[in-house]
User: Fold this.
Amino acid sequence: MDWIFWLIVALIGLFLIGGGILAYRGRRGIEAPVEPEAIEPAPAPGAEAEATTVEADVEVVGVEEPAAPAREEIEAPQSRFARLRRRLSGSQNALARALADLLSVDRIDSDVWDDFEATLIASDLGVGPTTELTEALRKQLAVEGVADPEAARKVLRAELLKLVDPTLDRSLNLASGDDDPAVVLVVGVNGTGKTTTVGKLARVLVAEGKSVVLGAADTFRAAAAEQLSTWGERVGVPTVRGPEGADPASVAFDAVSRGAGERADVVLVDTAGRLHTKVGLMDELGKVKRVVEKRATVNEVLLVLDATTGQNGMMQARIFSEVVDVTGIVLTKLDGSAKGGIVVQVQRELGVPVKLIGLGEGVDDLAPFDPEGFVAGILGE
Ligand SMILES: Nc1nc2c(ncn2[C@@H]2O[C@H](COP(=O)(O)OP(=O)(O)OP(=O)(O)O)[C@@H](O)[C@H]2O)c(=O)[nH]1
Assistant:
């Protein structure tokens, strides 16, 4: 009977070992990290040909992963703009000075008007708006006079506001399709503050709870992609970039594909803006837009202009607007410019509103443009 006893012991042993293995495997199954499903964005109809060329053109070498998702509190838009207002009302502001001078004289004779006009032109208001403003003020102040500076100031405020045009829609169009992200192309000459603007804008959007992907399509300068990746890490969003000298359209396409694959809300694409030749620029930016549009709709083309460059900036604005359909202007470095008049001139010439302004090098120094606040700043209020 011994053998029956030993058989029972062996069976119990086997049962216990088998059960242990099963229990261990079961636990591992729950604890094992779930592999993310690879999402391959489906090419848009008709996109295959150019997308294939694009992929053959260049290999996108890296997708910089963000260090950690950042969802910090950022300064409210109104208070960001209030800082600009304070900076504008500083004494270096030519427009503010001209207006203050006008209000301080007892009698406005033709010399005073001539000086006034010259200062307005020097502040980049443009000849047309300068003439309009002077004419309107001459008419109204001839009736009401400047004896009552408060009343005169009111006239000035109203006329300036008319020039800046509070009726324009300055909101960013970030309406995305069901599956596609909203795409914003940021264009402009290098050095105007494009990359910085993309970074600051990403920060604002992330703080609003939006998911963002950055595209470093400024492949001309390796440092530009590096700079954008740094912003991406800082803000906690991925940056899609290619090797130095890669086809910008390819990088832009990949960034938008990645955004679509991840169901991101917005893809911000930083482009290179070398004004080597108008044709070259047209080819480059035209191709970026065309290729991106095979994957998703381009919602906004934001032109970044450096307010300190005055008439040179206006020339750039004209060229870019001929090359690509600009939908909004970002005026940077208004903090360091005595030439706030460029807001009026550039809107007039391009027929496109200033939507955002850069007012410093800090991470929160980008604000939505507010016409009333801007005019108040110019008037030193
Ligand atoms: N004062 C001030 N400086 C700014 C503002 N916006 C950008 N800058 C500075 O302008 C310089 C150029 O900015 P970038 O963002 O590198 O310009 P970019 O157009 O991308 O040029 P590349 O980097 O050459 O492609 C940087 O030193 C920024 O910090 C602003 O609103 N005010």
The beta strands are 62-64, 182-187, 212-217, 239-241, 266-271, 298-306, 328-332, 354-358, 366-368.
